[in-house]
Amino acid sequence: MPKKIQNGERLIPYNLVVGNAERKLVFLDPDNVFWGITRKQDCESIALSEQKVCSPPDEILSLYKKVRNRLDTQMEDFRFSANLTAIYIDPTDRCNADCPYCYVPAEIRKNGKQMNEEQLKIVLQKITRYFKRRASLRLAPSRKNIKPVIIFHASEPLLVKDIIFKAISDFGKQFYFGLQTNALLLERADVEFLKKHRVGVGISLDSYDPQVNNKQRLSREGDGNFAQAVQAIEWFDGYKGLNVIATITKFNVGHLPELVKFLHSKRVSCVLLNPLRLTAKSARKLQPEQDIMTRYFIEAVEKAMELSRSSDHRIIIGNFANTILAIVAPTARRLMCDISPCGGGRCFLTITASGEMIPCGEFIGLDGSSGGNIFKSTIHKAMQSKPFKKIRARIVEKIDECKICEFRNICGAPCPAELHSLGNMYQPSVFCEFYKEIIKYAFKLIAEDKAKYLIREEALKNLEYDYNLSI
What is the DSSP string of 65-115? Predict the structure, then answer.
């Protein structure tokens, strides 16, 4: 873990332009994400990373001194506890699609292994024993009635639909389940089964335009998944456990606002607009320009707010909601890519179809990533393995550009697998400027009291003030 900086009373300021061009100041402690916003213009032009001296108002400074130590401890625990809560299972390496940006190597997607029913049962039994043992030995903090999460993921899990559905039926008391799919094999009866068992479902859809979507979400038959994905979304009919996941490339970046509008009309409650990962070489030619992505991403957020406020159906952008939470409730964020060390090999791990335990699915095909095979070893040993420790050792304080960035514990410089594939895990995110602009935009909306439209209503109800001061 990083060495604490002793000059803890120094809150870093920068200017913020909110509604009606009103200027405010944000004072932020980058280490524990304490922040305060004030109307006082004590400093002139302050840009991100400028080292100008500017004292916060006495009220903010006084509150900061009272809560600083507690927030430091909370952030340290949040970042450095290896509290495994979710496991991704890839029951098959194979896929019936051929998306050009997929991080799973093409050969594996075409000819990879698949689990059978008995193998999947063994995996789930070993996971059950791991969590029971951890609970009995109190190896990690836990809350009553909180079950671990199993997500069927990777290439296309519905290629082994029968064994997955049997596992969900047999192990429903032990786990919450999730499923990520391209929907090419999803049938109406499957949707009813998933809703009955309260499975969290992610469906991949990159555009409201069939031609653009199918260019990115290719099926092996040569068309795409648009028709099947939209049909499945309509079958789910407003199901709260449904998320739609869109990967942002240079081809669909301009479609983001209209995609939000399209999904709102289909009663989708949550869409994730995820910047393209460049882990695979084939993905790099699809990289969008950061300024263009920033523009359309912000327009998509604005569209989501507009639709949520003007109708009886709310839609949020999941990864932006996580950014809001990273500011207003840092330890409540759910997506663990935007903190360092990231969640890979710490809060979650992936078990491949051959049984290899790796920190995250993004590491599939990258040499030296396995922490052991679950059919021959244990989850506990994987968590203590060198590959897992290596990922957990990757923190922003070890990256020259990041360690001086005000937003280092909001962004987290994702993604280590992507950056490793680009030659150096210890470098800023590929989309560093995009993340900075989105975080500044998030502060702007918080200052305008719009956070209530940007996160799930149930999450909003569960938030309580840890500290609060109005100036």
Answer: HHHHHHHHHHHHHHHH-----EEEE-SBS--SB--TT-SS-HHHHHH--B-
Q: How confident is the model at residue 284 (pLDDT cuts 50, 70, 90)?
A: very high
Before 341, cis peptide (omega within 30)?
yes
| CA-based nearest residue to 396, from 375, 364, 426, 356 | 426
Query: What b-and-e string marks burial along 94-116, b requiring 16 or more CB atoms within 10 Å of the CB?
Result: bbbbbbbbbbbbeebbeebebbe
Distances (CA, A) of 193 to 82, 169, 187, 189, 467: 33, 10, 10, 6, 43
pTM, entire model = 0.91
Determine how many CB atoms are found less than 10 A away from the CB of residue 21.
Answer: 6
Angle at 150 between CA 148 and CA 151, to 5 degrees: 145
The pLDDT of 195-202, averaged and rounded, is 98
Longest alpha-carbon distance in the chain: 67
> Residue 201 belongs to what H/E stretch?
strand 200-204
Question: Are the C-beta atoms of residues 336 and 81 closer than 8 Å to each other?
Answer: no
**pLDDT tens-digit readout, 43-52:** 544 444 444 5
Main-chain phi, psi angles of 279, to 5 degrees = -60, -45
pLDDT in tens, 170-183: 999 999 999 999 99
On the question of pLDDT at 109 being above 80, the answer is yes
Residue type, 438: I
Identify the band that residue 367 occupies on the pLDDT scale cut at 50, 70 and 90: confident
Q: Write out the DSSP string of 121-137.
A: HHHHHHHHHHHHHHHHH
Helix axes 188-196, 161-170, angle to 10 degrees: 20
The HSE-up count of residue 122 (CA atoms within 13 Å, CB side) is 15
Q: Which of 354, 318, 185, 351 is nearest to 243 (CA)?
A: 318
DSSP string, 374-415: TTTS-HHHHHTSHHHHHHHT--GGGSTTTTT-TTHHHH----
Report the C-alpha gap between 227 and 29 in whole angstroms.
47
Report the distance separating Cα 279 and Cα 95, nearest Å. Answer: 18
β-sheet bridge partners, residue 249: none
